[in-house]
Fold these 2 entries.
Entry 1:
Amino acid sequence: MTDFDRRTLLSGLGALCLGGTASLSISSRADAQTVPAVPMPPVPRLTHSHDVVSLTEVRTNRPAVALTFDDGPHPTHTPMLLDILARYNAKATFYVIGQMVRRYPEILHRIVAEGHEVGNHTWTHPTLSRLGNPSVLSEIDRTQEIVWRTVGALPVTMRPPYGAITGRQSHMLADQRSIPTIMWSVDTQDWRRPGSSIVADRMVRGARAGAVILAHDIHGPTVRAIPAAIEGIAARGFDFVTVSQLLGWRRWGPRGLRYVSGPANEYRG
Ligand SMILES: [Zn+2]
């Protein structure tokens, strides 16, 4: 467990044990100091799904597409991708694996700080269609929790690993967690490693109003494809927005809390 995890856990336990009003004593170097308790509140539940259960693209006249990147955060490829997206002022959606968020929380901070959206891509990347409801819910809930505890915002959509989910499971997640299933309309098949130019070409050719483009920010060639892809898609007149923006939703998750870097790395309201 890293220091960050411990501190985050402390904050979370503070929320549970102290009810958010008491002070939390934290040892710092030689002397113990008391800091105001600013614990994370319990993970909230989404209360409205906007009536979406599952979709592959968004029906819209708006000339915009959603770039989506699965399986991160990755320690080197994701930061490189963020640099590129920032250069073009393009927003994207990152379907993150909970275990990877736990390993690379600082990259999740960067994703959120730079205006991108975070979606839920399960905790361990299993084939959900082979799992029972309790396991499916556990995979989703654990990732909701780590994202919430890391950045104080909650994913409002999920994407099943391998696209493997049953209609019944999507309905169950929409009913019980208000989290719709977002598939894709453009598959770059970048995991087959076809090379950067082919990945970029597939993105550009697939772009149309409301398209949801699938790629993975764990592959170097994918990241290197993005400048050409963005330039080609932009030349066809499309903007780059997050999944929630494409759906016309105002924001992707409760953002009442702001991360404050410092000795205690607390969250402040
Ligand atoms: Zn995946």
Note: The domain at 56-247 is CATH 3.20.20.370 (TIM Barrel).
Entry 2:
Amino acid sequence: MKVMPEKVSLVIIGGGPAGLAAALEAQRQGLTDILLIERDQQLGGILNQCIHTGFGLHYFGEELSGPEYADRFSTAFTTAGIACLLESHVLEITPDRVLTVISPLGIRKIAAGAVILAMGCRERPRGALGIPGTRCAGVLTAGMAQRLLNLQGMMPGQSIVILGSGDIGLIMARRLTLEGAKVEAVVELMPYSSGLTRNVVQCLQDYEIPLLLSHTVVETHGRERLIGVTLAPVHPQSRKPDLAQTRFIACDTLLLSVGLIPENELSLGAGVVLDPATRGPRVDQRLGTSQPGIFACGNVLHVHDLVDDVSREAEQAARSAVAFLNETDLPAPQADFSTGRLPDQHLAAPAGWPFPEQPSLLPILAGPGIRSVVPQLISRDRIPETLRLAFRPARVYRSASICLRDGQGQLIIKSQRRILTPGEEARLTIPASHWPAVTAGHWQLSIEV
Ligand SMILES: Cc1cc2nc3c(=O)[nH]c(=O)nc-3n(C[C@H](O)[C@H](O)[C@H](O)COP(=O)(O)OP(=O)(O)OC[C@H]3O[C@@H](n4cnc5c(N)ncnc54)[C@H](O)[C@@H]3O)c2cc1C
């Protein structure tokens, strides 16, 4: 794109799998005025560095690598002729959907009729953990190691300890082993892995890499380069390390795989209300945020295990954004570029759009046993045919029931599960036939044993 437009019906921020699927679906819904903005030099997002297979089993019925999965969408996107700005970073979104973008074309403002947030997530860094020790070389996140190895052909080290058993850490344990490194151990604070079971089996057990549950790193050692770490077991309840039982493991590299956090700075700047559990926006079943016309999908909304779910969710966000544009009589907003503000009539919310305090919204609460649930709200005036709740259990459960109850405690739907673990996002589908008359109050999702 040679000229940056001043107003666009739908702007999608992020060219990863969420942004690409959203753009294609918006076009399928008949919208032509779409702009996707991506800060990287290429489309595909984080999948470009995920060269292992395991992507696309649900969406395409095939096992693809990350770049292959991304390529299917980016090829379709390019063929569809949807407008795109690469190497362009969205710096700010105002509540009334005026974006500030920095790109090779300069700094510009774009007024959007609707916005889809698809900025993905980032890794928790070492600073967030506060491990004592020197700040020597050799301590990096698992995602950074993945990028160095898979995109730049650089080995981050030869003897490795991985802190945290998230999926990226598990995948990197296998990848580094295949490249000749010795992975001494994967160390996990919790008494269970925080990654998918299939990754524990295929990436650790198949390569005889020890998984030390209920352990943590209490100190890093080394002046210029890491020479080892001290581990300690943790108390099962308090999770405090037992410093009487420490042990030293020699290693030149410590990888951190201790969680992903939605990229939520833009959302916050736009005044979007965030959920403290997912750390992404609170949304209703149409994936609309607390700001009218701003939708969210993919890892910026909640961290997903499978990219297939990201693509499906993004398609839902696109359908909702197009419906919003069709339903509102608002003309495409005209920004006053001197102030970055829109004329006042554009600030009014169309009826029925989600604000947290609106009585038309039914909150879905995360009850006992549930760490987080998405969506967090249902618009009472638009009960969907089928509602799919995505949730994470707070701990491991065997032979448990997921129960959705209304505000009076009446059971709406119950589903039996053999195993539930925080490492695997679970889903509950509620068909229209199970919807009771939606009354005041709230619904609550819980795990009952
Ligand atoms: C380091 C890392 C490694 C991962 N490895 C695996 C794996 O091996 N296997 C697996 O199944 N899943 C993996 N995941 C999960 C994976 O991210 C998701 O399955 C999927 O890629 C999420 O898609 P997304 O489009 O929501 O986010 P992303 O793929 O992260 O795409 C978001 C895009 O938004 C762009 N962006 C962000 N902010 C802005 C802005 N302000 N302006 C413009 N553009 C912006 C980014 O550059 C990026 O291209 C990994 C995640 C991370 C963070």
Note: DSSP finds seven helices and 27 strands in the chain.
